[in-house]
Amino acid sequence: MLKLHFAPNSRAERILWLLEELELPYELNEMAFHPTDLKSDEHRARHPLGRIPVLDDGDIQIWESGAITEYIIEKYKNGGLKPDVQSELFPQYLQWFHYCEGMIMPPMNTIVVHTVLLPPDRRDETVLGQAQRLLTRALEPINEALEGKDYLIGDFSGADIMLGHSCYMSNRMGCVTDEMKNIKAYVERLSSRPAFLKMAEHRPS
Ligand SMILES: N[C@@H](CCC(=O)N[C@@H](CS)C(=O)NCC(=O)O)C(=O)O
To answer: Alpha carbon of 145 to those of 48, 87, 130, 171: distances in Å?
Structure first.
């Protein structure tokens, strides 16, 4: 059975959400988002940097949320949740799928470092402000792409698991402006999906 090494409010939520969307059976190793769990010898043996998500599939172990998403979609969804390689939507699918870790997450990581992870006396307001502006700018093309669409390429796909989760997190951090009405509606739509709600049950109340 698939086993997901998970902590709430992290990229591991993407994988739990995907497993719920596909109604796949899985086992969950729920860890605290804390060095005690993530940097333990046990978890470092799974991921050299002590990060999440990590997925076990029998003897296979894989990390990187994008790689895990692709792995599950290819292996268990028989090509579903993504357009056929010959479809004109396929390059768009790839683009938005990779825009997530490539363009959205780097400034988001900086924001988390300078609002949560560093002790207050080491946080830098200039760096934080730059990252917030960069994130907002990087969200604008997503807002445009969503004009007249429910999901990034029309139908719900793996790109929404990746980038949609980042849009959700960006909105929670206050980086989706009121003018980005398409992203606001998109986040609402995503977070009303039954599978998203099941994933969210694993967040601390
Ligand atoms: N690019 C990786 C990033 C993995 C990553 O940095 N995960 C974060 C949680 S969102 C983590 O484990 N942080 C713990 C730490 O940095 O100690 C992915 O997409 O899986």
So the answer is: 36, 18, 24, 17
Residue 205 counted as domain residue: no
End-to-end CA distance of the chain: 28
Which atom of ligand 1 is the closest one to the Cα of 51?
A: 12
**CA 178 to ligand 1 center in whole angstroms:** 29
Instruction: Say yes or no: CB of residue 10 within 6 Å of ligand 1.
Output: yes
Residues 38 and 11 in one domain: yes
In which band, very low, low, confident or very high, does the pLDDT at 202 lie, cut at 50, 70 and 90?
very high
What is the pTM assigned to this prediction? 0.97
74 lines ligand 1 (CB under 6 A): no
pLDDT of 128 reads: 97
Six token digits for residue 176: 């989706």
Report the CATH number that the domain containing residue 46 is assigned in CATH: 3.40.30.10
* Contact by Cβ (8 Å): 7, 52: yes
Ligand 1: does its nearest atom lie under 6 Å from the Cβ of 37? Answer: no
Number of domains within the chain: 2
Question: Which structural domain, as residue segments, surrounds residue 28?
Answer: 2-81
Are 6 and 55 found together in one domain?
A: yes
Residue 65 CB–ligand 1 contact under 6 Å: yes
* Interval 158-194: pLDDT, tens: 999 999 999 999 999 999 999 999 999 999 999 999 9
Please tell me the residue having the least CA distance from ligand 1 atom 11: 51
CATH of the domain at 158: 1.20.1050.10
